[in-house]
Amino acid sequence: MEKEPDADQLVVEHLGEPTSSWSVGEFGVLAEFHQGAFTNVIGDGWTARTQGGAIRVTPHAGVRVLAYETPSPNPRHWNHGIAFCLPEDVASMDRRTSIAELGPDRDAIFPEARDEILFDLGLGRRSINFCVRTSDGALIGLLRGARGRSLLEDPLLGAAVAAAGPVRVVESRTARIEVSNPIPPRDGVSPDGPHTHLLPGLMKSGRTHNANIPVPAGYLACLTLYPAHPARDTEGREHEFDAGMHAAYQQLLERFGDPDYVAAKRSSAPPRSRKESLGQLIAARQRALASKIEPGPN
Q: Most buried among 35, 39, 75, 170, using CB within 10 Å?
């Protein structure tokens, strides 16, 4: 087997891969960058732009790469991803708890946006700043008038910001995603391509990530890569099982995954831990879908 790429190569290769997606965020609040056939990789290979958004990844020597698989609520499926993690003290962002004006967005991915005004929405997250950027005078006035207040405690303010549809800028120590696609109404559906989620109900849990994702103790996930899934497209729509995509991700799992989890997937012995149970459950789902046989209880 060929040696798998290191973390930097992994990022550069998948920024140029239209079937890969990315996210920056925490449980209940994140930006997603879904690529497509018209994605352009820019400059040094660490920045990409597609319809409705852009991403820039910042190399970090201390990053720890973790490939994982988790169960899906759909009993025939599973989720997978590759988390780029940093120690908590390195990963920590500003954690503002009220709206703050940050001035012109000089770090904007594209020069034409660098005079637009950036506002941190004050969500108080540990590993990200969730901001909006705008040149709309009315929205700038609204946000300036709300400085020092919490967006999460003012539903009317949140609704007004969403209705104005500013660019959302979500950044961590390792990446920035900018989303210009429209914000759907509360009962609407996220658009194809880049989009954001802000779900206060989930945020109240205080968790930084889904409990099934084995982020190491003392670390925070600052960027997540979603390579092509063998049974779903980037928008979550099911398609016929693709054995090549499955094999490609299993190679990444071998290189960057938890060795005990990988071993459990191959084992037929009774599981002795939750990790082994999950490995055997997901392996059964994968075998069943590959052979078009529904998995039995596990």
A: 170
